[in-house]
Amino acid sequence: MKILFLYTEIAEYFLACCNKLAAHGEVHIVRWPVNKEAPFRFTFDSNLKVYNKNDYTPDTLKNLVDSINPNLIVCSGWIDKDYLRITRTYSGKIPTVMTCDTHWRGDLKQQLATFLGRIYLTRIFSHAWVPGQIQREYVLRLGFKPDRIETGFYSCDLDYFESVYRQQFPAKKQAFPRRFVFVGRYYEFKGVKELWQAFIELQQETPNNWELWCLGVGDIEPVKHEKIRHFGFVQPGDLHEITAQTGVFILPSRFEPWGVVAHEFAASGFPLVLSDSVGAAEQFLTDGENGYRFDSGQVNSLKDAMKRIMNLTDDALLLMAEKSHKKAQQITPQTWVGNVLHILEKHA
Is the pLDDT confidence value at 38 over 70? Predict the structure, then answer.
């Protein structure tokens, strides 16, 4: 069995899933260059065959794919025209899978996309693979049949974050860290300005011992405050040093199709504070049970969620942490592999 991914920007969690898949056959990955704003350093296992798209012309890339002779192609959406041209030549011969993490919004642009999708995309792709139900609604409208749609496209590296949980949670039972942690790029759409404003206002209104640790880089200048720390970009392998000292994960995005980072912190045993624009909240957050949701872009709503966390006892926070960890088991690299095998079995 040969599986080919025509991919945009890869991440560690994607490679963790591919490594599990490699136990069932050859895994080939064509990828875009590493994003300079998220300079991940990757180490590829020998069981994965990885190719840099920039090393190929459209013709030589097609020749590469033909030489691989895949049994299934998974393509990152419809953004890359070279990928689409290649996938089209295999349509009808093998399963051709389109990934999509876009939410259904119902605006004019998406209404037009649904019209074009039924004519164009379903002629190229036999299946769609999406993270959750809000994306499933979109690809249904694009013309994909229900039995040709898989969910669970994004999974964190659960083995790694399970080890983080097992190693660090006993210490947190002794003294729960009263620190929020944010991981994301410093951009407007990530809601980082609202986060800083909300935290600072809470400190002014009711001074307390909570801190806010922020990991990321971007075009927004980091705010200066005695209880806000900035760490810049942190490699995934070094994240455990931060998780050991923090207690509650917060993601205030105005736009976040999924947010695997929420899955990672849930698996690590963190209560979650997520905006209603974070797609992963549908899977990993039950409001009031293992954290709180708030209205994206609304400082007062964010302040209310943070204040509710701050007012909880250690025991209540620990209970939320355990529930987050349990919810994280719903999607795993193993279920991800199962989705690939299911598509192949249906095609056989």
Answer: no
Tell me which residue has tokens 């004019």.
Answer: 108
Instruction: Give yes or no for a contact between 224 and 192, defined as CB atoms under 8 angstroms apart.
Output: no
What's the whole-number mean pLDDT along residues 254-279?
A: 97
Could you give the CA distance from residue 47 to residue 263 in angstroms, rounded to a whole number? 26
Beta bridge partners of 48: 27
Nearest CA-CA partner of 82 in 101, 100, 65: 65
- The average confidence (pLDDT) of the chain is 95
Q: Report the candidate in 215, 219, 221, 252 with the shortest Cα–Cα distance to residue 235.
A: 215
Q: What is the pLDDT of residues 89-102, one digit of tens each?
A: 999 999 999 999 99
Give the count of beta carbons closer than 10 Å to the beta carbon of residue 313: 9
Domains of the chain: 2-155+332-347 (3.40.50.2000), 158-330 (3.40.50.2000)
Kindly report the pTM of this predicted structure. Answer: 0.94
Name residues whose C-beta falls within 8 Å of residue 272's C-beta, 6 or more positions apart in sequence: 248, 249, 250, 251, 262, 265, 266, 281, 284, 285, 290, 291, 292, 324
